[in-house]
Every structure is written in structure tokens, then in C-alpha cells.
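Most newcomers find our protein records easier to grasp once they have seen one. To make this concrete, we reproduce a full record directly below:

===
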Amino acid sequence: MKLLAIDIGASSGRAMLGELKDDGLALTELHRFENAPVERHGHKHWDIGDLGAQIYIALARAGPDVRAVGIDTWGVDYAYLDADGRLIIPPFAYRDDRTQGVPERVHRDIPFERIYEITGIQYMPINTIYQMAEDAAARPDVLRSADRMLMMPELLSRLLTGRNAAEYSIASTSALVDARARAWSDELIDALGLPRRLFGELHQPGEFRAPVQPEVRSQTGCRDDVILSGSHDTASAVAATPLGDRRAMYISSGTWSLAGMELDEPLMTPDARENNFTNEGGVAGKTRFLKNVMGLWLIQEMKRLWDAEGDRLSFADICDRAEQAPPFDALIDPNRERFLAPEDMRREVRDECRRTGQPEPEGVGPLTRTVFESLALAYRECLDQLRRLTGRPVERVHVVGGGVRNELLCQMTADACGLPVYAGPVEATAIGNLIVQAIALGELVDLEAAREMVGRTFPPREYEPRETDAWLEARERYAALT
């Protein structure tokens, strides 16, 4: 049986064809494309027209014998549709600066402590709750015209089916969903003055299924059904992580690093809130208890600048230079807001090092080594917090996603955490998307069986910890920064 996963991140997208066979899952990459915000009237927006065109290309390449397709994307971003299903304005990108000062205004009416008590979602100024509060203040005419709000994967699925549907894992990133009831929070929606009609009934991953529209079929040859799988990319990535038992931490490593544990129920204690842990919806009724770490975004932004200057380095080149640089010259807290959307990431890293009384790293190797070591130490900090907050032992770390290809960072993670790291699969998000579809279609029994198949088909690479004494001293320096 063939299935199609369309996995779109905030910097690129890919379409992966999955074929379930007796010996596991075969993957074929059909299409890969860039995705970046576009500037319109001084704001950053997503180009829905281009994303729709890329999805059509993927469907045409998949052919007519695919049973189903699922789309997953990053979280928090959304769009408004009118009663006829037309897009009212292009969706804003979360790196737009329009929410500056908005969280403080929201918290005057709804204290963050109360938001966390309801949603369990960590504070980030990019969260949907603050974006929609800005809409209510700055463009009330849009809200008056809007009939539905759809998160990004729901919007892209609607392009194929013509039907509105909301899915729990992606909706949970909004900080507008009651984590215990697994439904939209009327209290928060009312407090923001948002129309209740915007928020449709939530479906669990794999529950909603609809055929593609005739016009899609005629233009692409696709006869698939669309299934809302784990529509949040991290939900799909964690679904494909072969965790085994409860004594594992996962890191979904890409533009962002999502480091956490899988729980049966949300953990929304004051201590979890103060440590900025989030409770997002997972597959099969699970909760993704995790922390967002800024991730490889810092490296991607540096590479973008070097590319523009003509020094076109591959990521392998960058890692080689980082490995040759002196260790532990300088460290940063990668989660500082200054790293969210700077004009020059290299300058921000150097300025942060100077601000904290450390040498300023110069050149590719020292700059990137500073980032890699800091990320590994951020993962260790998450590990310590997870152990304390959950009361559960952690004996290994599973790394999935694009960061698996970064052997240097995987080894640093093992060293910093003092635990074995199991790296893989690289395409965890697409795989998780595919297995949720397969479970929905009855081709796989449940999540446990699916993970067993993933571990067998894509055996991870193991990294054992080494040089831990030097990392112990670095942990003390990092703790002083954070």
C-alpha cells in the first residue's frame, strides 16, 4: 500500500512516498522545495499560492495508486477564511514582529499563570493566542468577515478537499486549547473577544478523512483521500521515534529543537510553567511534554549570510570547521529572544558573548562551535529538568529529524547528557505522518506496532558519551548564563 506524506517546515518542504511492505516501510522522496516568508506591506506572510502549487506537483508525481495523503507543518500560524471558503488575508509568518508588546497587554487581562493552567503551553511571543489578540486589536474587520480560522496544515488540506477540519495536535500549539478537555477553551476565546464560530470541532490525529476535490483530481491525477494525521510536524516526528519504554528523552532536531518526554497526561504544575515546558497534543492520546530550543536556526541563518557573501559552505563543511575550533571558548543561551529573527545572526552571537564577558568568536569554526556546544548544553538542561519535573528516570536520548545528519552535534549531545544517543530516523516527521495514515486505514494495529516497524526498518546510529569531565565544567558555565 502506498501513502503520501507532505511535510512542510518553516524553511523547506518535502513530499515522501511511503510503501508498506512485509519487511517494513520503503521511502521515496518525490519532491523537495524551499519555503520562506514573503514581505507584503511591511509584514512577513506565507505564500499559500506557492505552497499549493508545490503540493500539486507532489500529488502529480505520486501517481494515481496512492491510498491517502497527509500534510503536516510547523505550529502556531493560521489563516482566516470567509463563509465561502476564501482566504481573507495571507497568513502571517510567526517571525513577523507584529506581536511585540502584545503578550504584556494580553497578560493584563489574562495572567499567563491562568493561560498555562488551562493550556499547559509554554510562553513564546509567537504563540497563536498573541497573534490573534493582535488581529483583534489591529484588524477587527478581518475578524468580522471571518467564518473559520484554520491552522496551516488544515488550510493546505482544505485546498485539496474543500472541507474545513481542525486537528488536535496542531491546534494545541495555539495556547487556545484546554489541555485536559482536549477542546478549544471558551474562557480564553471569550477573554480575547474572538468569535466562537472561528473554532471548529477538534479531531484527533487520523480521525478526519475526506476525498480530494474533482478539480484536484483532474489537474493532478490524484485519487487520494486526505487524512489529518499528526498535523503538527513534531507530533508526527515523535510518533515515529522508537522510544521503546518510558525511560527515554527525545529531541526532534531541525530549525527548532524540541526536547522532551512522552506522557499519558499533561503536566501543568507551577514548576513546569516556571521552567517553560509545554504540553502539546500527540498521537494516540499522548502528550508531548517538551521545551522548545531555538535549534539549528542559528546555524541556518549564519549559513545564509555566508552564502550571500559568496562563501558557499555545505553543512558538512561547517561541521568540519566547528570540530577543528577550540572547545568551550564561549557559550550562549540559544533561547534568548535576540536570536529569534535578527538581521545578522553572527553579530548577535558575538554581541551576546561580549555582553556576558566572554571572548567573541570570529570565523566559521568558532562561531558554529559556540552554537553547537550551547545547543548540547541546552539539551542537558532539559534532561535535568525533565527528570526533576516528571520524577522519571531517563536512560537514553533519541534524536530524530534533520539534525541526525550532524554527527558532531549528536556526539556533543551524548557527551553533554552523559547518556547514549540513538540517532534516527532522519525523515521522522514524514514517517510519523505516514504511520498515522496507515493506522487510520487499518494497515497498522497501533502506535506501538508502528514504532516497532520504524525501529526495525530504520535502525538508529548509537553515540556513546565521552570526554564528560570537560562537559561538567561547561555545564556550570552554561547554568550561569541561563
In short: The mean pLDDT is 96. The first helix runs from residue 48 to 62. The chain is about 40% helix and 20% strand.
